[in-house]
Write a structure and sequence with these properties.
Distance between the termini: 37 Å
CATH superfamily: PK beta-barrel domain-like
Number of domains: 1
Number of helices: 5
Order of helices and strands: EEEEEEHEHEEEHHEEEH
Strand order of the largest sheet: 4-1-8-7-11-10-9-13
CATH class: Mainly Beta
Number of strands: 13
Shape: globular
Strand content: 25-35%
Radius of gyration: 16 Å
CATH topology: M1 Pyruvate Kinase, Domain 3
Length: about 200
């Protein structure tokens, strides 16, 4: 992750990967119950291998919900981090100047310059050494609320539409922080944000 952090995303050269994040499954407390989760990710440097089922060194505690070919990689816009920093401070679970670290939303790729409104199901993200495809929006669960530190986080993700997107791996390879992203439009029939809102209403 660049030293300037997520609050100084450099968009002059188009969309990029701001950070690559991985995590391992561990026991966490969710709603007073102990469960296993790998939502806590940490930024890693250098090239990270991208396989058909995800990134090297990353785990999914519940592959039925957060893994598989269609949800191998989770990407989240770094532009939304300021929002989450603010609402966490309002909920009094963090200080106003307490920045969230990359991967705090559970994402493998923190993006710069690509928001949910830019992405449609079937779009491809061509990176220098791999190709990914937008498969579906992410839906928050109790583990997300636990990671954010307050129960209302799930409702706020639904209201804001700041959901990020799951990606399938079309061409395996490697990914690194700073990689440029070329957005290749798919059929453009269903948008990530519209699908997220429709499923949330359902």
């Amino acid at each position: 992750m660049p030293d300037a952090g997520l609050n100084a995303l450099n968009l002059r050269n188009g969309p990029t990967v701001a950070s690559v994040n991985v995590g391992t499954a561990r026991e966490v407390l969710v709603g007073g119950r102990r469960t296993t989760s790998a939502i806590a990710k940490r930024a890693v440097s250098g090239a990270v291998a991208v396989h058909r089922l995800g990134l090297e060194g990353d785990e999914q505690a519940d592959p039925g919900l957060h893994g598989g070919l269609a949800k191998a990689v989770y990407a989240y816009p770094g532009e939304h981090y300021a929002f989450w920093q603010t609402v966490r401070a309002q909920a009094r679970v963090a200080l106003w100047d307490e920045a969230l670290e990359p991967g705090a939303l559970g994402e493998n790729l923190t993006l710069a310059g690509l928001l949910e409104g830019d992405l449609w199901i079937g779009d491809r993200l061509r990176l220098p050494r791999c190709v990914l495809a937008v498969s579906e929006p992410r839906f928050p669960c109790a583990k997300f609320a636990a990671a954010m530190g307050f129960a209302q986080a799930v409702g706020l993700m639904v209201q804001s539409g700041y959901c990020g997107a799951y990606l399938a791996v079309i061409e395996a390879g490697t990914v690194s922080a700073g990689d440029a992203i070329e957005l290749i439009p798919g059929p453009r029939e269903v948008g990530v944000r519209e699908l997220f809102k429709a499923r949330a209403r359902g």
